[in-house]
Amino acid sequence: MSETLFDRLGGQAGVGQLVDRVIDLHLQNPAIGVRYQNLDEDRLARSREKAKEFFAFGAGGPVAYTGRSMVETHSGMNISSAEYLAVIDDIMQAMNEMAYPRPVCDEVLGIAYSLKEEIVHR
After folding, report:
1. What CA–CA distance (Å, rounded) separates 9 from 18?
2. CB within 8 A of 30, min separation 6: which ones?
């Protein structure tokens, strides 16, 4: 049986650490930080948990995703291409900081780009 992306990311603990770091970077990112800084603590915590679920599920983990679709989640937000790239940059920065191998980073990058049409300018 081949190892899933979820396994290569370190399972639930690895995905949790990665998502936490990505969201911390989002909060500091001048291009997108305001979208996260305006969330109250409960909404930010919910966003973290749903992002962890989504990431774990999408990486082939034994996790059910209970959130909304990407289109539903981002509808009305009018996210620009520049904002989308800022999110991608934060993901790649977090993965590099956590020393994930290049093939794992590339796989995550491919998945992230596959979602672009469901997120940008909705």
Report:
1. 8
2. none
Tell me the pLDDT of the chain (122 aa) as tens digits.
Answer: 579 999 999 999 999 999 999 999 999 999 999 998 888 999 999 999 999 999 999 999 999 999 999 999 999 999 999 999 999 999 999 999 999 999 999 999 999 999 999 999 87
**What single string gives the DSSP state of each residue in the chain?**
-PPPHHHHTTHHHHHHHHHHHHHHHHHH-TTTHHHHHTS-HHHHHHHHHHHHHHHHHHTT-S----S--HHHHHTTS-B-HHHHHHHHHHHHHHHHHTT--HHHHHHHHHHHHHTHHHHBT-
Residues 27 and 36: beta-carbon distance below 8 Å: yes
- Kindly state the tokens that stand for 39: 């969330």
Q: Considering only CA atoms, which of 84, 86, 108 is closest in space to residue 96?
A: 108
